[in-house]
Structure formats: C-alpha cells, structure tokens
Amino acid sequence: MDWNLIVWTVVTLLVAGYFYVKNKFKYWEKMGVPYVKPEFPFGILKEIGKTKHSSEVYTSAYKELKGKDVLGGIYYFTEPVAMITNLDLVKKILVKDFNYFQDSGAYLNEKDDPLSCQMFALSGPRWRSLRNKLSPTFTSGKMKMMHNTMVTVAVELQNYLEALADQKKTIEIRDIIARFTTDVIGNCAFGIECNSLKDPETEFRQIGRKVFESSYFGFLRNFFVMMFQDLSRMIKIKINRPEVTEFFMRVLKETTEYREKNNVKRNDFLSLLLQIKNTGKLEGDDTDLGKITFEELVAQTFLFFAAGFEGPSGAMTFSLYELARHQDIQDRARGEINKILVKYNGEYSYEACEEMKYLDQIINETLRMYPSLDSLFRQCVKDYQVPDSQHVIEKGTIVHVPIHSIQHDPEFYPNPENFDPDRFTEDNIRNRHHFAWLPFGEGPRNCIGKRFGLLQTKIGLAHMISKYRFRVCSKTSIPCILDPQSIVIAPKGGIWLAIEKV
Description:
Layout: H1 3-24, H2 27-31, H3 54-65, E1 71-76, E2 79-84, H4 87-96, H5 124-134, H6 140-166, E3 170-172, H7 173-190, H8 203-212, H9 216-227, H10 229-234, H11 242-262, H12 269-279, H13 294-325, H14 327-343, H15 350-354, H16 357-369, E4 376-379, E5 384-385, E6 392-393, E7 398-401, H17 403-407, H18 426-430, H19 450-467, E8 468-471, E9 496-501
C-alpha cells in the first residue's frame, strides 16, 4: 500500500474542499448583497437546535441586515439563502411576483417517504392542481360542518379541567391542550374518537408527539435535505419516522376500506377527501376537481393532522400564558365571551364564536408574538430582477421570510415584547403594513387550513376562559424560554399555570 499516495490524496481533497467552501462563502459578496458572516461548515446554523431556537438566530441576522438593503444574504451550510428584510419586497415575492417564487423549497421524497408528498412540499403544476382540489374542503361552509364536533370535544376539555380547578392545582397546560387538539383533529380529520383527554397515552397522542420530536442533529438534517435535495433523495433520507408513516398508512387504509364497504358518511375532512378520490367532486357541487390517489389522500390527511394539532395547540397555550400574566385582559375576554353566550342561550354556536371579536384580537396578538413557524421559505424558479435594485435572485435560490423577526420589529409593533391585543383593532390593522403579520403566510401558498385552525383555537379558549381563571405560579417561566430543539415555536419545559373556577 502506497501511504504517500494516500496522504497526498487526502491532503489534496482537503485543500480542494477548503477552497471550494471559501469560494461558496463569497457568493453574496460577489452579488453585492450585505450578508451575515458564515461559520464553517454550518453557515448561520451552528447554534440552532443546540443553544438557541431558530427564531433567535434569524432575528439576530434580521437586525444585522435590515436597513442595509431590501434583502440580505445568509448561508445554510455552504448554500446561499436570500433573507428578505423589506415588506414591500415580501409582498412582491409572496403575491405580485408569485410566479417567480411558486415553490416552497420543501423536501419531497415520494418513493422513500410517502408522507412527504403533501401539498406543502409539492411544486409547480402538481401543487396548483392539488391546491385547487383541496380548497373547497376548507370553505366557511365546511367549517360550520365541523363546528359541532369541535364544541363537543371542547366540552370534554371543560369537564376535564373542573376537577383540577376544584383542587386549585398547578398544571402543565401545554400537554392538556395538545391532548384536546389531538382529539379535535382525530374527530375532524379521521372521524375517530382518540380520547386523549381521558388517556394521555393513546396511540394518536404518542404519534402526535413523535411528529414534532426533534434534536440538534434533526435540525441539521432538515436544513441539509432542503439545501441538497437531489443528494438526499439519492441516499434515501426520510424526514418522517417509519413508525409515523406506518401508523397513518394503516389507519387510513382501515378507515377508508370500512367506510367505502359500509357506505359510511361523516362530517369530517376524510369524508371530503374520499369524495374527491372516488368521484373527483364534492357532494352538492358539480365542479370537476379531478380525482386523487390513495397515497395523496394519506399525505394530505397527515398534513391536516400535523398542522391542525400543533398550530392551534401552540396558539392556545401561549394565549393562556399571556392571559395568566395579564389578568385585566383575561377579565375583559371573559366578559365578552359570557355576554355573547347569554345572547345565544349559552350555546357556543358558529355565529356566537364569530361575534367574539376581542378574543380574535387576543389570538392575533398571540400569533404575532408566537407564530407556530418562525419563517416562510420559497424557492426562486427563474432569475428574478429585484425591483428598484441592481440585485438578481438567481434560479434555485431559497428565499427566507423571517416571520417571527418581522413581527417583533419595533418599527411595526412598538414595545414588541409587550402583549397588547389592541394592536389588532380594525384601525390599527388598517394603519399598519399588511405584510407585518404573516403567521399563515400570504398569497396563493398561504395556509389553506387557516379557518379551521382559528376556529378550533377560538372554541377551545372560549370554553376554558368562560369558566376558569388562569394565573401564573412559582413554576411559570417569565420570560418564556423557547425550546431550542423544537421545530416549531414551543416553550421549554412546557407552560405551568394555576387554575381555579371563576
């Protein structure tokens, strides 16, 4: 064995790799775009998932870049990413010039990871076709159809809290709410009673935990597959755990076969998807939407489960956290809810919920401070000349819109760390840049389940606030510390609150 040859080969490869990376890290400098100095080999990712939550790292980059230009440069590993710091450019990217940025840049591996084939990850004509097919399942009419199911589960939550309130116990509210949202989504998506409130170790709840479990290396993997998608597919990297995939494939196969064999019809999301799968149409509507495959049905149901479980869970948890810290706001909300309930004879009807405007403001302010996802990503599909600028965003470049950073910018929200629902009065909304609030995204790729998520959040909060008072306690972390290893914005160690009957 020629050891000299081996040594020289290794040295040559290391030197070549060094100069390759050094050249890659000069991309934004060559483009004349201000950038955050990258660290080898992670770019700006070194601390994410390890010592800091991603939102903290992005906000640091946002503050460094904002005001220098309409966009700035950051690096994920060696790959350049355009961070958008100007709201007018955000509007152009998400709406006006959407045809340049119609792809999300998400990782898709249909063969090895079938659950990744959900609408969020699809691109081009496939995304547009599926979006058109699913949009009719999220109309206000369809939400009314699921409203009673949500209320039924919310009453179970209300009853579950009664014993805890009687004992004036200190509770970890995040887990309780996650069990509530699991039961809601199980009923509304699958037509299955999960009973997570009664048994926190049901299979649905266990799977829900696994969907969002993460780690430092999990973070690095997620960024790696986004930036190096062809290589990731070649080496068969999966985002979803095998047991999660097996669970959804099995449950959907058993449920759909039973329904089709016994002609079962329910007011849930799966029933609507089955109509599209089998006929290409929704009952009572002659519009030909085109059929979907069983695999597409499973992937979309998984997306609905994941988003409908985690998004409302986080919004409700952080709302209660802030209401516990601000008793005057909690009292005002409770007063509005109970006044409206008197008008509707104590019924949480769809119309009653629609009238709870101050509760809307509370939820909107919570989503400003704690959006479920801290960022939006788009991929440039053809070279884009940035308006009123010399810059070109090249085809294939990932574009990063830092939602959390924008929503904590004092230019748009004075004293951004203060919880103030009056930021969302009609006048204040009208006087603020429309793209300063983006928890559901904007434009053609906005969150298709926005109505569902907001309705579920509102019903859950109204049932809890109307009967119970939440207070901070010795175990409440103030300020709230975010879990660095969470892929969504979540509190480290949960949220501990005291509860008592009103």
